[in-house]
């Protein structure tokens, strides 16, 4: 289950982004000003995309970002340099906040759930594409376990400048629906 991120969640997000297992891959500033800059617009609905808290038994356990690639032209161009990007495709990013829950399948379940949710609420989305820095083995394995297939690899701008630009691109397509 998911719910939209609110400003009241920013202290929790700050703690998660500061945790070593998250900071390594997200490389995100965590000052109140940076959180406002990077999450305030989607929280208000004035910027495209969604920031969603993943919940287990009503408690927040992680964050999923979902956005249409077309809303972020430079990022879409990076994908398009490596693979076909269907009109209407979305991308996701995700983190498990609590280190005690890492390595227990929660990331995979969050990914599966947001894909199911995407198919349910966005009938015009044909596919979900995700780029993962090649060194982030846990992330791309979670995608594979969630049913994504690797469709490309190549250079993309890494979130962390310490990382090599090599990324793996994963894709899952909307399931075909039977008719009559």
TrEMBL record:
The keyword Transcription does not apply. Pfam families: Acetyltransf_8. The keyword Transcription regulation does not apply. Keywords: Antibiotic resistance, Transferase. One of its GO terms (molecular function) is N-acyltransferase activity. Acyltransferase required for the direct transfer of medium- to long-chain fatty acyl moieties from a carrier protein (MbtL) on to the epsilon-amino group of lysine residue in the mycobactin core. It comes from the Bacteria. InterPro entries: Acyl_CoA_acyltransferase, Acyltransferase_MbtK/IucB-like, GNAT_dom. PANTHER family: LYSINE N-ACYLTRANSFERASE C17G9.06C-RELATED. SMART domains: AlcB. Residues 1-175 form the N-acetyltransferase domain. Pathway: Siderophore biosynthesis; mycobactin biosynthesis. This is Lysine N-acyltransferase MbtK. One of its GO terms (biological process) is siderophore biosynthetic process. SUPFAM superfamilies: Acyl-CoA N-acyltransferases (Nat) (SSF55729).
């Amino acid at each position: 289950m998911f719910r939209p991120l609110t400003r009241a969640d920013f202290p929790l997000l700050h703690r998660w982004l500061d945790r070593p297992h998250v900071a390594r891959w997200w490389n995100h500033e965590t000052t109140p000003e940076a959180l406002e800059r990077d999450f305030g617009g989607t929280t208000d609905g004035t910027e495209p995309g969604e920031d969603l808290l993943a919940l287990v038994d009503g408690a927040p356990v992680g964050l999923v970002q979902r956005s249409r690639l077309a809303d972020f032209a430079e990022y879409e161009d990076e994908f398009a340099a490596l693979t076909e990007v269907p009109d209407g495709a979305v991308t996701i990013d995700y983190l498990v906040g609590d280190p005690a829950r890492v390595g227990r399948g929660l990331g995979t379940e969050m990914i599966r759930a947001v894909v199911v949710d995407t198919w349910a609420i966005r009938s015009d989305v044909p596919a979900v594409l995700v780029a993962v820095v090649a060194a982030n083995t846990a992330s791309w394995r979670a995608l594979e376990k969630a049913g994504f297939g690797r469709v490309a690899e190549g250079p993309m701008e890494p979130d962390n400048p310490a990382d090599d630009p090599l990324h793996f691109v994963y894709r899952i397509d909307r399931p075909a629906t039977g008719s009559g």
